[in-house]
Amino acid sequence: ELKVEQNPLFLSMQEGKNYTIYCNYSTTSDRLYWYRQDPGKSLESLFVLLSNGAVKQEGRLMASLDTKARLSTLHITAAVHDLSATYFCAVDSSGSRLTFGEGTQLTVNP
Amino acid sequence: ETGVTQSPTHLIKTRGQQVTLRCSSQSGHNTVSWYQQALGQGPQFIFQYYREEENGRGNFPPRFSGLQFPNYSSELNVNALELDDSALYLCASSFFRVQNTGELFFGEGSRLTVL
């Protein structure tokens, strides 16, 4: 059974600081997603990582995938308050069936 | 805006009742998946439909059932509702090819409260 673990689960950081969220998974997969979720809202797709060594960047967020280590990272650069949300990684185990991590609740303080 | 629409957005039921949730897929997508997200948790895969057939199921009891229609819209039915069924139900559509599984696009969700 595929297991997806994120850490940390809760992250409080100051504006302007950098931090990394980690996503480990237990079985082979070469497709990993990062989503953002605001309270009471649905999932907003941030990144789709399709192969080993994939790196994608959008604004202050950068995601990478190491399929050999079964590890993805979401790096936040110079955080701003608008980034406060819950971030999920999800691994595609078979045919677009996603297994999600527990989520990382990020709070960016002024 | 993903082009995936769900209805209703919110509903309240009592234990033992039945509920039907609806999803309209993004144009051109042939696969629909349903996820349950309990408060404070990540979404969990319920099942997937492809060409009107169930194509994979997560760890959910048979009282969770679904349909996919020829126009690729879908329903999720839950019988004999329990308090723990209270959750946000998310529908996701994608385009499945043998060579390449497509990215999922999520709807806004239906929030079910069971009293």
Brief descriptors of the model:
heterodimer; A: 110 residues; mainly beta; 59% strand; B: mainly beta; four-stranded antiparallel beta sheet
SSE layout and pairing:
The complex is a heterodimer of chains A (110) and B (115).
Chain A: E1 4-7, E2 10-14, E3 19-25, E4 32-37, E5 43-49, E6 55-58, E7 61-66, E8 71-76, E9 85-94, E10 97-100, E11 104-109
Chain B: E1 5-7, E2 10-13, E3 19-24, E4 31-37, E5 44-50, E6 53-57, E7 64-68, E8 74-78, E9 87-94, E10 105-106, E11 110-114
Parallel strand pairs in B: 2-11
Antiparallel strand pairs in B: 1-3, 3-8, 4-5, 4-9, 5-6, 7-8, 9-10, 9-11
Characterization of this structure:
The complex is a heterodimer of chains A (110) and B (115). Helix content of chain A is 0%, strand content 59%. Chain A has 110 residues and is an all-beta fold. In chain A, the strands form two sheets. In chain A, strands 2, 4, 5, 9, 10 and 11 form a six-stranded mixed sheet that branches. Chain B is an all-beta fold and 115 residues long. In chain B, 0% of the residues lie in helices and 50% in strands. Chain B is built from no helices and eleven strands. Chain B has strands spanning 5-7, 10-13, 19-24, 31-37, 44-50, 53-57, 64-68, 74-78, 87-94, 105-106, 110-114. In chain B, the strands form two sheets. In chain B, strands 2, 4, 5, 6, 9, 10 and 11 form a seven-stranded mixed sheet that branches. A four-stranded antiparallel sheet of chain B has the order 1-3-8-7, with no helix packed on it. In chain B, a hairpin with a 5-residue loop joins β7 (64-68) and β8 (74-78). Chain B is globular. Chain B starts with a strand and ends with a strand. In chain B, 34% of the residues are buried. The mean pLDDT of chain B is 91. The interface between A and B is medium-sized, with 22 and 27 residues.
Question: Quick gist of this model?
Answer:
The complex is a heterodimer of chains A (110) and B (115). Chain A is mainly beta.
